[in-house]
Every structure is written in C-alpha cells, then in structure tokens.
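Lab notebook page, bench 4
Experiment: in silico fold of construct C2
Operator: M.H.
Input chain length: 263 residues
Purpose: comparison with the prior construct
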Amino acid sequence: MGTILDRIIEQKKQELPILRETRPTLPSFLNDRKSFIKKLGNAEEISVIAEFKRASPSKGDINQSLNPTKQAQQYECAGATAISVLTDQTFFKGSYADLMAVREAVGLPILCKDFVIDPVQIDHAAKSGADIILLIVAALEEGTLVELYQYATNIGLEVLVEVHNLDELQTALKLGAKLIGVNNRDLKTFNVSLDVTENLAALVKESGAFLISESGIHTTEDVDRVRQAGANGILVGEALMLSSDVKQSLGNLRLPLVGSVNK
C-alpha cells in the first residue's frame, strides 16, 4: 500500500499526461512576480503564510464552505505576509482555479502548494498566478529536485524547499535554497511535533536561508516556540480555515521576531 506520500506521488504521475495536454506557454522569464523573500528580509515580525486548504489526508474535510476569494481577502486584511493555496484535487480538494481566484483577489505573494514532480506543474502554477512553488525533498530524487529548483528559479519563481529531517535539510542546503520550510508533520506518518523545527533551525539559520515553520501551529504559544528557535515565518492552514474570526486568529500569530533578522 505504501505511505500517504507514496499514494499522493503515484496519483501525481497519473495526472501528468492531462497537464501536458493543456500545458500553458510562458514567457521565458516571469518578471512581474511578487517576492516573498524580499518581504522576509524587511520583516520585524513573524511572517504568516495563511493557507487556503479545504481538506487534507490526515484531517479529512476541514472547511468546504469557504470561498477562496473572500478567505484570501480576509487573510490580506488581517496582515498575512503571503497566501498558500492547495492545488491538489484528489487529496486536498483544491485546484488551479482556486489559485487563480486568489491571485485576482489579493496583492500578496502566493505559494502554490502541491506535490511537484514535473516542470509542467510549475508551468501551470505560474500561469495561474503563483509567485512561489513548493518542492518537497521527501517526494523527489535529488537529481529531480535540482532540475525542478533550477527550472522554477530560471523563470523567475521563488522556491520553498520543504524538509522534515537532517538528511533532507542537508540536501536542501546543497541546493543553496534561500527559503527552507521545516514541516513539523512527517509526510510518511503524518505525526506532528514542533520539535522538528527546534531541532533543525540552527543549521537553517547558519546557512543564511530564511526559515518557515510549517504545520502544527495553532496558538500564540506555538508561534513563540518556533520564533525562539529562529523561524522567520510560519505557514498556518487549519487554524485559520476553522476560525470564526480570521482577523483575531491571525493577529494572535503575528509576534515580533526574536533577535536579528536575515537581511
């Protein structure tokens, strides 16, 4: 049967022929993208990537009633630094249409959150308005990771390289990644612990990369833990998708950065 991650990647392989049939034509370089890295460099508080996520394999349906346009506008008004949009349909009930709707609604950098295994997915993300794509080290052979990273950066996109353990982090550091996401959720077991960020943060910071702590962040206390470890930003989905007061919930996450900030 394999892990959940194995099942997701197998599904992605089956989707590639359809994506290739509708592959968009892109200019050689996307020069109108909004930079999340620049925002991080100027930040004085934890940067919040607020996520639009209808469902997940671990939680099932999270909130099917929300409109991506309205939710994204709430995130922007509440002070989010960037917005993440799940575009996987089978496991997360997202779509590129959701990404396009968010792009039209807000002026923030947008992360296309998906399980990218082929350049054609990057093309669709860029055409739909993404400024940043996600590359998950655990989902890719190192050679493929390097090719996808270079492809995305060569056309003007920023890349959030996601890791969960020391081996994966070493691979990300070899890439020269400027933006590293430490996922507190193990994508093979879906267990969550903020210890993961705390254990890997020092090496990320030593590299000069910006550190984003992902998953398992719900409260002000959670944010405080990861910012004390050195996180520049956090990615939060479920807590905001379930909130009855997005402005207050997101505001509770916006704590001042500790110590010096990467410039």
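Observations: Residues 163 and 255 are 24 Å apart (CA to CA). The radius of gyration is 17 Å.
Next step: discuss at group meeting.
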